[in-house]
Amino acid sequence: MGKLKRILPPLAVVAFLVAAWWIVVVESRTVIFPTPLQVVTATLDLVRQGTLWDHIGASLFRVGAGFFLALVVGIPLGLLMGWVRGAFTTLNPIVQILRPISPIAWIPLAILWFGVGDMSPIFLIFLASVFPTIVQTAAGVQTIDRKYIWAADNFGVSRYKLFVQVVIPAVLPQIIVGMRVSLGVAWLVVVAAEMIALRSGLGYLIIDSRNAGNRYDLVVAGMVIIGITGLLLDGLMRHLERLKPVRWRYAR
What we know:
Elements: H1 2-28, H2 36-49, H3 52-83, H4 85-98, H5 107-114, H6 119-142, H7 146-154, H8 159-188, H9 190-193, H10 202-211, H11 216-240, H12 244-247
C-alpha cells in the first residue's frame, strides 16, 4: 500500500501531461507534431524491425564506456585534490576552466582526434562525466567531519591507514552522489555525442529521423526512450546508496 501511494502521484502527473499533449495536438490540427498514439506506434514499429534494441544497446555501450573512464580518472583525481592541498591549488584552476565548456564544443576536436566512430562519442561522454566526479569527490574529502581525523590521530593511525580506512569510507557517500550526477550528465549529452557516431544509437535515431523525412513521431519516440532509460539508470544508481558501506550516510 505504501509503494502504491508513492507511485500514484507521479503516474497521475504523467497521465495529465500525456492528455494535455494529445489535446493540444488534436486541437491545433498540426500535421507535423505527433500524438502520443503515433509515438507509441512508431516505437512498436522499431521493436518489430528489431532496431530499437540495437540503438539502445549502442547508446548504453557508449555512455557506459565514457562513464567508466570518467570514474577511473575522476575519483582518484578528486581524492588527490581533496586530500593534498598542493594538488588542489595546482589542479583546481584547470578543472574550473575546462568544466564549463560544453561537450558539444569539443565535437570538431573529437572528430579530428578520434575520427567518426565510437571513440568520439565516448570521449565526449567522458568529458561530460569526469568533471562532476572530480568536483564532488574533492568536495567530499574536504568536508569530512574532522572528528574522524582527530580520532584516528589519537590512536596513532598511519597516514596510509587513515586515508584507506577513514577518508575513503567517509567520502564514499559523496562519491555516490557524484556518480549519480555524472551519469545523468553523460546520458544528457548522448544525442550530441552520437551526432558523430556511425549508424546506431538513440541520438543517431533522433537526428536521422529528423533529416530523413521529418519523422517527428520517431524523434519524440527517441526522446521518450532516452528519458525512460535515464530514469531507470538513476534508479540503479540510487540502489548504491543502500549498500552497507554508504547506508549510514542516508540513515533516518
